[in-house]
Amino acid sequence: MDRLKLKNLVGRLKHVELLCVLLTVFTSQIVVVHAQEKNSYLFNDSHFHLTNYVQEGIDIHDFVKIMDGKAGRVALFGIPLQQQWSFRVDGEHAPTYYLNSDAPLYYYSFTDAYIAMAFKSLSKEDQARFDPMITGFNPTDMYAADHIRRVLQTFPGVFTGIGEFSIHKEFVSSKIAGGGVASLQDPALDRILDFAGEVGLVVILHNDVDTPFAKEGAPTVYFDYLKDLFRRHPKTTIIWAHIGVGRIVRPIKAQGALVEQLLTDPAFNHIYFDISWNEVAKYAVATPESTKAVADIMKRYPDRFLFGTDEVAPPDRDAYMRVYNQYGPLWKALDANTSEKVRKTNYERLFDAARIKVRAWEKAHPK
Fold first, then answer.
1. Domains in the chain, number
2. What is the rounded CA–CA span in Å between residue 323 and residue 70?
3. 125-181, pLDDT tens digit by residue?
4. 232 and 126 together in one domain
5. How far is residue 94's CA from residue 187's CA, in Å, rounded to a whole number?
6. Interval 32-57 mean pLDDT
7. Peptide bond preceding 164: is omega within 30 degrees of 0, i.e. cis?
8. Is residue 311 domain-shared with residue 229, that is, in the same domain?
9. Which domain holds residue 348?
10. DSSP 3-state assignment of 331?
11. Cα–Cα dist 289/295, whole Å
């Protein structure tokens, strides 16, 4: 090698070394900034409804302001069901909630486009704080998986998962018009979860652990069917919303033992649990004993639980923060590591992995 070539090579190596140094500095600065940002919020929200049962809600830009300093990231969805306003049933009294009327509910697919456009109206910086979810499908329909595919291909770069959607839900399931009651044994649901697993979508599934007013001590109606469903879809990340608790469906005495069946069996390593909703918090922190029981199981399995609010179009910060504040005794009962995982890092781990997989699938399957 002549002297000129050697000189040029040395020069290039120096540039590479300088680039490496600059990259190291830049990366370290990102880590520091990320750490600072991480300490500037209280939680990530695995369960948030931007709109209500009549598809009305808070403007997403106003919600970003509510989030600041409180919520880092939010799983964003509407509600897949519309409460019908039947003048014959309700007259001038326009219902805004499913318990306000005897008129039926129906699936409202436009919610996905609405959520997508709300998300796209944000700056790139604010978009990074949301994980929009697809909900506008009928889980009894064998074409539901095709709806999810179309939404992903129509709005690439937007959605991270599907849900919250419901199968067995007190007072809701029987009110839905058309298609029959959803079932954990329906091939349409299997097709949805198969597709979610193929794409990498996170699934937030609502299914009550039992029927309303179930007799204490009697076998739960839905738990075994849920386990069978979970077993059939080992490649799909599923978050069981509210751990099966409802407004009337109270946690049974053996609830902790049932949950622990899923936590200890490797066949269910893909199943996670969100503790969203004020009704769930009410039971969890009802007494020092109940708080301790919940904290103990979280300490044993700190990677499997996520905090969510389940707030529906909250008008202000106080309304948005009520469930987090309600869980105050639980946060005090948890050690720092478990608390951090439940409030923040479990969300980041699951949804970050989903973002990568879903974007890769979208790239490989353009419209």
1. 2
2. 12
3. 999 999 999 999 999 999 999 999 999 999 999 999 999 999 998 878 888 987 789
4. yes
5. 36
6. 81
7. yes
8. yes
9. 43-364
10. helix
11. 10
